[in-house]
Amino acid sequence: MTFDLIIRNANLPDGSTGLDIGCRDGKIAAVERRLKADAGEEIDAGGKLVSPPFIDIHFHMDATLSLGNPRLNETGTLLEGIQLWSEKRPTLTHDDVADRALRYCDLAVAQGLLAVRSHVDVTASHMIGVEALLDVRERVKPYLDLQLVAFPQDGYFRRPEIAANLERALDMGVDVVGGIPHFERTMEDGRRSVTALCEIAAERGLPVDLHCDETDDPMSRHIETLAYETQRLGLQGRVAGSHLTSMHSMDNYYASKLLPLIAEAGIHCIPNPIANIVLQGRHDTYPKRRGMMRVPEMMALGINVAYGQDSVLDPWYSLGNADMLDVASMAVHVGHMTSLAAMRASFDAVTVNAAKAFGLDGYGLAPGCNADFVLLEARDPVEAIRLRPARLAVVRRGRVISRSAPRSARLDLAGRPGIVEPWLYAPKLPN
């Protein structure tokens, strides 16, 4: 038996060790110990972790890598970021958006990030961002799955042309219906926008992903309406609530009612740990709220929680590097999710949970799945979050599309080892 690629002696995220992964014709054809076969290429994982690729379920690719243009966000607030984007929007060109997006996809691939859901602003009638990202979606299809959300950044009801723009974007081939109910002029307009957007999705057979309650206001409760409309329209499994930062400030009694409603509706919940803790709580003195939804409690109820990155080098966030393990690490810290089970759940939130929210076919490490995976210089998911290690090999459809050198340091210390390899230093953790 001959394969195109075999990864030997790999650890898997479920704790399995010493497995060989055989790939043929773009699919995983075998996962077993000591696979007796030849291959066009073999890679010895040497007891390191092979993971399905990372997924960013919430991003803004039309804005990425635009940091400083037209100026920097001096207050660090969400509202100044939106104002900066409104100043940038009239200057957008197709080439500018496409070039920045393609450069970002290069960075993503190098980090083992092979699927991105990007919101694209449909506020302006010129639709330059939509056209550019539709072009990018086709250009990156061989190596990255890009899903687009029609996002009315300034609100669905703010101006009459925005509703028409959103419909145009969907007609052009945008994949998902987006919205931002808390940014409408009134709570009532926000409620009406949730209803209208969910009805559009139901009529078109599309998913819904709303920026929802991205505020410190505990009375911003559009997620409750989203849960209701999901059930009324039979959209279970097709709806995502992104951000939900008001949940951080809600009364515990109300939250005890809300979370079961979200679970019952089958809504995917998408916190953006890095962006949320940076942008929220800016009006606080001390203590400062961090704006994260109640991730451990939601996971305990069986709600599918998937982490997004939101922004990299743009008007809202001046850092970032397309590393979803950085996002998972931030969630672990800010959510006090430091038990082994919670850290492993955070790894799932940037892999399998995100794939479920994305609706990604053929995802995983079982025979029959697409041969897409990442070889990490770490032994297990907890070490991967701790180290944010080198992506030694990134594989797409059975072909290595990115390679990185191992991380090591040479020491010149009397009586000590000459080389330090960080992945070898952690004690073995219990299963």
TrEMBL record:
Pfam families: Amidohydro_3. SUPFAM superfamilies: Composite domain of metallo-dependent hydrolases (SSF51338), Metallo-dependent hydrolases (SSF51556). InterPro entries: Amidohydro_3, Metal-dep_hydrolase_composite, Metal_Hydrolase, Metallo-hydrolase_Enzymes. Residues 41-400 form the Amidohydrolase domain. This is Amidohydrolase family protein. It comes from Terrihabitans rhizophilus. The lineage of its organism: Bacteria, Pseudomonadati, Pseudomonadota, Alphaproteobacteria, Hyphomicrobiales.
